[in-house]
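Friendly challenge for the regulars: who can give me the structure tokens for this chain first? No prize, just bragging rights.
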Amino acid sequence: MSSSLLIAGLTVNRGSKTVVRNVDLEVVPGQVTALLGANGAGKSSLVLAVAGVLKPVGGSVTAAGVNITGKQPHIVRATGVAAVPEGHRVLGGISVRENLEAAGSMLSRADLKNNVEEALTVFPELAERLDQRAGTLSGGQQQMVALGQALVCKPKFLLADELSLGLAPLVVKRLADAVARIAQSGTGVLLIEQFTTIALKLATSASLMDRGELRWSGAAQELV
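First reply, four minutes later:
Bragging rights claimed.
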């Protein structure tokens, strides 16, 4: 049984259009896999299908041997797959603390406390803003909250979609350092990133997607 996140022959439609066609991809624990391609290539649709938001029309997704194809998002999360969609999506009307705790609502009180504390070791900037409304944070800080929410669930696999979108280079570097640390802890990371140089520096393997299909896969350094 494979310990990886395995995407095999995945096909996804949105409306009458096929946006992901017969994609094979492996995300290995403890490594960053970069998924690159132009806007509209199908990268975000692939992430949403793996996360259970979109229902694939073909293929399969297994996480460490567990079939999660087409499962509802809460089941996918419970299996150990956490997605951070593009756009700094946080619950803006509640505090940073409440955002982090909401992500771990299925955990025991003790586990939730420990997991929130561990997430704050990755993003200590948030520790002094725990009682601040998340909607008043900067874009970079909101992205840290979004990543922190995923980390509270202690995922085996993290799907990170355009973490750097609209952020300053210094903040992007900070987030890249956090992604590297997350992978070093044993989590497999699928990273979709507009800054190709950053993605390839972090990644062990990379794939290039165009018009819904994978055009190239191999070692990240080969693509460099």
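The chain has eight helices and ten strands. The chain has a mean pLDDT of 92. Your move, everyone else.
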